[in-house]
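Reopening this ticket.

The earlier resolution said the output was attached, but the attachment link was broken on my side. Pasting everything inline this time so it's all in one place.
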Amino acid sequence: MKVRLIVSSLLILGPLGSVLEIAQQPANSPAATDLGPTQSQPQKPGFWNDQRIDEFSGPALKGDRLSTVLDEIEDPAERRAFLALFENRGPAERREVAEQFVKQHPRSWFLSQAYEIAAKASIDLGDSKAALEFGGESLKLLPENPLLLVPLADVEIRQGESSEAARHAMLALDCLDRFVGPSTFSAKEWAALEKQLRASSLYILARAETSEGLKASGKTREAKLKNAEEHAVRSRALNPLDPATAYLLGLIRLSRGEQKAAASAFVLACRQEGPLKARAEERLRTLYAQWNSEQAKRSFDEFVRRIDTTADDSLPEPEASGNARHREGAAPSYVGSASCASCHPREYAGWQNTGHAHMFQPYRFENVFGDFNNATYTDDVGNVVARMTHDDVQHYFEVLDAEGQWHRYRVDYTIGVKWQQTYATRLPSGEIQVFPLQYNRHEKRWIAFWRMIDAPKSERGLVINFPRHSSDTAYLAHCGPCHTSQLRLTKILAPEAKDLAFREPGINCEMCHGPSGDHVASLGHTRPGTKPPLRLQVEFGKISNRDYVAICAQCHMQSAMLGLGPNGEINYRHSAETFYEHYRSRPYAEFALRAFYKDGRFRVVSFLVESFVRSKCYQKGGAHCGHCHDFHPADRGNERALKFLDQPDQMCLQCHPRYAANLEKHTRHPAQSEGSRCVACHMPKIMNSVLFKTMTHQLDDIPNVEMTTRFGQKDSPNACLICHTDKSVEWLRAELDKWHDSKPPAVAASHASRPAL
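Inline output:
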């Protein structure tokens, strides 16, 4: 798949924006001091400790990377305008060029980059209003962009918009946790920049919490100031030479009545030259004058020297949650799904009803549903390049090679059991190769699936290339991580595709619940009626939604970058700490355009988790996959493993029950119509799954007429127009304008016990 690099100005704003000033308050005073920008310190936007970090666009626009981006721009005029975005210009010209790009190419794939450049140029120009407007437009299209989130949060905190600043700073930290660095940076460059981004985000959170804390009283005030102090301490740990964070830390501690700890922070702020040095010294002199008589006998310089600058400057490590907590002893062994059947017969039988259990199976004649009755497949010019046949006991496929020779292969494995099925053969070397054709059950035809999902020039997309037995068609190397359990390398140094092995075909119980060797072994020593101990195994009702989704994301997150475990583990970990990881992702902007719509939403079904974690249901409501899906369904016909198969609205109403009382008022459709189903608007079928459409999982998505007006139904599919195919965008706008005249009932979540984020 081609890589689309995000090429943009990477201007980062740091904590030396306007510094908070908190007037000293008595420890028992409930009054909050006004928290505004420092008037005496002129602001120079676009700088962090007076060091510019923008104009990193150059490395992204060289060689193959430049070609990759430009290949996806068909219009020559747009291509030229795109290149002009990254020419070396002053901020006023950069903004003008970016605005012209948006005006001349309003339906471009690259609007997020143009808006980002305009936002950062506006910051350089000191135009905060324009910066926030342009930045907001960019984030609508690509919200996972810490390189923009942080400077916008900096602008917002200086404008007194503490809640929005905190939201953007938290999103930035979340992105830094979830994603690896853009490929426009070397590992060394990104490590340094990531540290600065984290420090700045934490500093902004400290300011925001302080602002809110000083407006509150009692326990709320103390809790917010304590959070502010923790954020500031962590920010300073990442950027210990920044005087602004040290000074802020001192002011927070003064507000908490911690004078000694505040003094140590002010001493640290004094060590750096700049306008804060005089302020920090003034604070220290005030403390010196207020100190007890014994201290007052010392000179001010001696007083400063004796202050312990390490006091109260560390925080305890946060407690790990879920399966990340420490376990004693060696990791339990993996013993396979069959060991679960005797004690958990209902769950085991339900698992057998899912696609997980049959994702990859050794060949059985009765499991094949593809057409092998002397079927053929032709290429673009009508030549037969593949033949599918069978006898009484075995299925075969024959493939023509580039020299015109036919090769016959036996079907040794089936891949998939629901809507489409692929087949694989085992070579004499033991390597498993995947047949390049897939049979679609709904359309009853063969398709070259790699040709459909790969870039246009993909070699494995051509059926006649299969007899080469390339590593690109090796099952374990490309399909194994999500279709087999406990996949591992048998040779760590210079491994080849054949140097892979797995414990069990399909997705077994232990891929989700963890290794159960000690759990099974303990059964012989446990009294009847008591539960065997769980050491590393997951109880899904007791973990956070982030851990829950991380387990599903092992296979269902397209952007996840699997790392190799110390013992050659690929899709699991054999560790006393955990059996799964929160895999970091490749930045979304580095995937081919076909993965997205122009409005920024995901187009391809393999990005299900990515779309789900964008939703507020996940981010704020604590929703996870198990709220809607049953992974041990009693009904084998429940192909999507839905928890409420016969009551689909209940998947939403379980958290938003208030809508059930007056459904038509919310949906503006008859209660029993398809238009009143929650999924009709919030999960429209816009994601491509090879030959059919399936539902997006960005659950709080609602029909957006502005995006559809701009990009059209093809590039910004609107849920309303999916049903009302005979209507226009103009009709849609008029109808939605009527809806806005009467507000629907407020959302009410009923699950107070849901895991907190």
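Reporter confirms the inline version is readable. The radius of gyration is 30 Å. The longest helix spans residues 187-215.
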